[in-house]
């Protein structure tokens, strides 16, 4: 056997050895040399990178140091300007300047800020006294702080902050040579200067510091030569200054030293000696990895030198090792490439040996295929996928179809297929030929030599060459399954009979396995629940749909599971009733039972609807009237009892009405009981419809028996009068509904009813007592002439009768046009600007009836809609007439609008029609709305007002201040005017609250851009007060009451002629 390892050779010759290893050796040497060169170049690059990082760090440090020193220089420059203007600041002004410049927050590293003042010897005593007065120094002899007598002294005057720096106050700078040198330098140059490092008096822990000072010159008045007054000084600790600058620099791996080289204008030598200001502990030149980097910087008039000494290469371990890693990687890659070249050369040598082994294996495989093909227990054939012609068949294939091998090789599979399967076979051949399928399995019928069709299973796969390309042929394996098909058909027929039997059962069946999976459902189950096999997969699915409530489902399922476990022992599950939610949304009562079948379980369902219907029918017979299907007397008593219990809990009232058909006995005897029953049924239907259309939701309509009906009302207002009014209103509506003729057979029949009513509050009344009261009231109605409604309470009956009379009079007044519009003028200064149209009712017998009486009644019964339309059209007609008269053409007319009228959907159209039909200018019409409208649909109110405002109609808010106006809505309303209610005007001269309210309304209107008018103005003093406070429009008896149109027109003419003062 020859192994294929590349490292094993079969007696290679010397020539072969050279051809295999020479080229890999050359590759290895060349790659190694290139790798070393690359490593050397990368090392140079890394060293350059380290130097650049050191330069970047020292530049960052220098920039931070320059920025810190320059920022402190800005302070002394600011104070220099302040002292130049005012050299003798007070201590308070000096401290205030520090706060104004926000020094404590912006410059936290500042040690002390002082002002050194130049003093003559004669000024020392005064200066000493001022220092002692301010308490900046201890009470001791200050002269010990001053040097010998001189012509001038440089003394520290102002000190900030004083805490920790009190030792500086009164100090003579001539005692400090370093500070004196800087002072003289700044005086000579007039520029900001900085001292050499020296010891700070006020700091014991870290005394080394510097001063930055700016000279202060003041030019005396009338002289041109400025006089040196002193200098503003800042003392800084050099260590804190440098540490602040070093915070921005990464110091890992570096050492830093900072030196003072002296003043910038001095030559080397003398004071220009190096002074080390700061040095990190790790400074040592001998251990540095790179040369130090230095920078000289000019800080005002000093030169500082900053040196940075790298203690390491300033590189990460990866960066430091990168050149060597690249070199090693290159060497490794060269070795791998050389090894790869050697492998390729060796594999080429072995390829020839592998070809011989492949040919031998192929021949062996062909032999095995031949044995398998001809000795297989199933029919095997090789078929041309293009034509379907059989290219090769085995003996079993011939036995299955009854043909000889020669006969089969002259035909194709399409000719052997049954006619019904030819198209399907042709399609599969096409898909095999195109490579669309890699195999297929087909059950089909094939023709035997004797013409018989047999069922076979055909499995086919395409043949591929060595490159996995299609050869246009496929192998087909055929197996005779005729006997198996017969057995399967018999089994399916048996199962079909069993399934048909289960589906025909009169009970619903549901079979589940041990894993709660639903195996089958019969048709009766689907008919009962609406759910089929496709809707339910598991028993959990069934429970979720039949009982959606989780709590109810848990209870029911626990009982059923318990009964199911019992059935596994007893053999039968006890029956239980189950409320099932069907698929159509209905709830059906079903009886659930079941029994185990081996490891499965069969549930059965029976419909209980008929039994439930029978029980419901019995219940209806007990509680409902059979003729009208209304609650009977038994249920009526229960409802009255419940209403009595309900009233105290809800703080409401209830009512009981008894209705008796007048003369029903006569009709029943003359026309027969069938006609009487028909009338009772129609009365019940008409009463039910009437109650359903009304505003009451809590009511019960019942038939007591015979021709007597009862109505129980709940949730009425607790106020007895209001409860009686609503009861009376409903009773009238029922009587009105029953006035329409009934059709009995073909003839109309007119009937009337007598009603008795009583209200209750559940405070001690009994059901029997209420029935007696209503019955007495009903018989009182019959005694009064029938066709009437009577209340049990006499006083309440009187109030109801008076209201009924007024309602009848109001209806007649509308029909007979008993209403007029009166006009009350509205005056602004000395000019009549408009009028308010007020409705008046002149009763032919009772005379004038107050609007306070009939307007609320009209709003309750809806007649206000008719009155409102009449007022609107009458006002527009009057405006049209005034438009033809010069003295009245410019008057605006205000019309009051009821909330009910405004809420009508067609209100905007009604106004448009009134304006158009009379040809009136819309801007002459003003609609007065009440604040109560804002409590309803505000958005609808605003929308309608904006529509009418778009036409030009104006709006005024009537009785402002008496309702519940929301300012957030008020500013959104398209109003033109606010009207101050007369209740505030009446006592505006004597009541401080009314005065405040009137002024507030005027101010509010002014801020919203609205005009104001006051109603109820009766005296000139009231008018003058309102005029003085910004209300320039008035309405009231001071000018005129509301009068008919003729008197109003005459009054306007007189007012225009003689003036306001004459009339008022």
TrEMBL record:
Short name of one Pfam family: EAL
Residues of the GGDEF domain: 652-794
Name this protein carries in UniProt: Bifunctional diguanylate cyclase/phosphodiesterase
Transmembrane segments: 20-42, 324-345
Keyword Nucleotide-binding part of the UniProt annotation: no
All copies of domain EAL, residue ranges: 803-1056
One GO MF term attached to the UniProt entry: catalytic activity
Top-level taxonomic group: Bacteria
GO CC terms of this entry: membrane
Keywords assigned by UniProt, alphabetized: Coiled coil, Membrane, Transmembrane, Transmembrane helix
């Amino acid at each position: 056997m020859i192994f294929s390892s590349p490292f094993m050779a079969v007696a290679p010759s010397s020539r072969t050895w050279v051809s295999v290893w020479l080229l890999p050796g050359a590759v290895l040497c060349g790659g190694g040399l290139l790798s070393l060169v690359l490593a050397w170049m990368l090392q140079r690059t890394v060293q350059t990178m380290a130097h650049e990082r050191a330069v970047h760090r020292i530049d960052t440090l220098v920039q931070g140091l320059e920025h810190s020193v320059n920022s402190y220089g800005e302070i002394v420059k600011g104070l220099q300007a302040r002292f130049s203007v005012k050299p003798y600041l007070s201590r308070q002004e000096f401290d205030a300047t520090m706060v104004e410049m926000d020094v404590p927050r912006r410059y936290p590293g500042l040690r002390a800020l002082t002002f050194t003042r130049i003093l003559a010897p004669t000024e020392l005593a005064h200066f000493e006294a001022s220092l002692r007065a301010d308490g900046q120094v201890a009470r001791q002899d200050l002269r010990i702080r001053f040097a010998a007598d001189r012509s001038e002294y440089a003394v520290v005057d102002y000190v900030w902050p004083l805490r920790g720096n009190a030792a500086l106050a009164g100090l003579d700078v001539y005692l400090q040579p370093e500070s004196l040198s800087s002072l003289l330098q700044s005086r000579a140059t007039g520029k900001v200067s900085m001292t050499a490092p020296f010891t700070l008096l006020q700091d014991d822990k870290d005394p080394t510091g510097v001063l930055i000072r700016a000279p202060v010159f003041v030019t005396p008045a009338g002289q041109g030569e400025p006089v040196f007054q002193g200098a503003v000084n800042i003392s800084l600790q050099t260590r804190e200054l440098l540490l602040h600058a070093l915070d921005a620099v990464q110091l890992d791996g570096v050492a830093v030293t900072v030196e003072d080289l002296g003043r910038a204008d001095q030559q080397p030598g003398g004071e220009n000696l190096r002074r080390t200001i700061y040095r990190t502990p790790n400074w040592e030149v001998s251990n540095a990895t790179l040369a130090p980097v230095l920078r000289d910087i000019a800080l005002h008039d000093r030169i500082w030198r900053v040196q940075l000494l790298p203690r390491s290469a300033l590189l990460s371990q990866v960066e430091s090792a990168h050149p060597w890693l690249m070199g090693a990687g290159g060497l490794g890659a060269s070795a791998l490439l050389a090894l790869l070249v050697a492998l390729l050369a060796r594999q080429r040598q072995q390829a020839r040996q592998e070809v011989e082994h492949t040919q031998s294996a192929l021949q062996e495989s062909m032999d095995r295929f031949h044995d398998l093909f001809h000795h297989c227990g199933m029919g095997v054939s090789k078929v041309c996928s293009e034509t379907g012609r059989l290219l090769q068949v085995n003996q079993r294939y011939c036995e299955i179809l009854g043909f000889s091998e020669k006969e089969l090789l002259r035909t194709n599979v399409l000719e052997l297929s049954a006619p019904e399967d030819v198209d399907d076979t042709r399609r599969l051949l096409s898909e095999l030929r195109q490579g669309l399928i890699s195999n297929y399995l087909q059950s089909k019928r094939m023709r035997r030599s004797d013409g018989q069709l047999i069922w076979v299973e055909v499995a086919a796969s395409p043949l591929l060459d060595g490159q996995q390309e299609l050869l246009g042929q496929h192998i087909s394996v055929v197996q005779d399954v005729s006997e198996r098909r017969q057995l399967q058909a018999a089994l399916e027929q048996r199962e079909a009979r069993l399934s048909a039997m289960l589906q025909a059962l009169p009970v619903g069946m549901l079979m589940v396995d041990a894993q709660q999976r639903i195996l089958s459902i019969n048709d009766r189950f689907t008919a009962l629940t609406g759910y089929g096999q496709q809707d339910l997969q598991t028993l959990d699915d069934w429970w979720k749909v039949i009982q959606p409530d989780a709590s109810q489902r848990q209870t029911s399922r626990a009982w059923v599971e318990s009964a199911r476990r019992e059935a596994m022992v007893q053999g039968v599950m006890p029956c239980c009733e189950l409320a099932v939610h069907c698929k159509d949304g209905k709830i059906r009562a079903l009886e659930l039972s079941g029994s185990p079948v081996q490891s499965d379980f069969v549930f059965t369902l029976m419909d209980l609807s008929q039994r439930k219907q029978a029980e419901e029918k019995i219940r209806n017979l007990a509680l409902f009237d059979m003729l009208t299907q209304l609650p009977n007397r038994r249920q009526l008593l229960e409802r009255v009892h419940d209403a009595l219990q309900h009233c105290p809990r809800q703080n409401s009232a209830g009512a009981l009405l008894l209705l008796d058909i007048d003369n029903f006995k006569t009709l029943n005897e003359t026309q027969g009981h069938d006609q009487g029953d028909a009338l009772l049924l129609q009365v019940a239907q008409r009463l039910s419809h009437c109650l359903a259309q009304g505003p009451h939701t809590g009511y019960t309509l019942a038939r007591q028996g015979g021709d007597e009906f009862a109505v129980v009302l709940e949730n009425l207002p607790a106020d007895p009068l209001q409860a009686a009014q609503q009861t009376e209103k409903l009773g009238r509506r029922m009587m009105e509904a029953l006035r329409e003729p009934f059709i009995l057979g073909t003839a109309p029949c007119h009937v009337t009813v007598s009603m008795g009513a009583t209200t209750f509050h559940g405070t001690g009344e009994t059901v029997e007592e209420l029935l007696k009261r209503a019955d007495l009231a009903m018989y009182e109605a019959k005694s009064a002439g029938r066709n009437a409604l009577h209340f049990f309470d006499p006083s309440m009956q009187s109030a109801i009768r008076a209201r009924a009379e007024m309602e009848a009079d109001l209806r007649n007044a509308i029909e007979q046009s008993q209403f007029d519009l009166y006009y009350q003028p509205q005056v602004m200064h000395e000019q009549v600007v408009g009028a308010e149209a007020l409705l008046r009712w002149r009763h032919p017998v009772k005379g004038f009836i107050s609007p306070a009486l009939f307007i609320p009644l009209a709003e309750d019964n809806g007649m206000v809609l008719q009155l409102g339309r009449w007022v609107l059209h009458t006002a527009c007609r009057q405006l049209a007439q005034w438009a033809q008269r010069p003295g009245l053409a410019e008057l605006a007319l205000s019309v009051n609008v009821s909330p009910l009228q405004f809420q009508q959907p067609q209100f905007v159209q009604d106004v448009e029609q009134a304006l158009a039909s009379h040809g009136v200018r819309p801007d002459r019409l003003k609609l007065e709305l009440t604040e109560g409208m804002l409590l309803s649909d505000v958005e609808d109110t605003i929308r309608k007002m904006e529509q009418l405002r778009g036409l030009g109609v104006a709006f005024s808010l009537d009785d402002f201040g008496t309702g519940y106006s929301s300012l957030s809505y008020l500013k959104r309303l398209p109003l033109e005017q606010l009207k101050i209610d007369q209740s505030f005007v009446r006592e505006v001269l004597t009541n401080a609250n009314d005065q405040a309210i009137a002024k507030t309304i005027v101010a509010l209107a002014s801020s919203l851009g609205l005009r104001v008018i006051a109603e109820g103005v009766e005296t000139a003093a009231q008018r003058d007060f309102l005029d003085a406070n910004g209300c320039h429009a008035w309405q009231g008896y001071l000018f005129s009451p509301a009068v008919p149109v003729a008197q109003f027109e005459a009054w306007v003419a007189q007012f225009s002629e003689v003036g306001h003062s004459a009339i008022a």
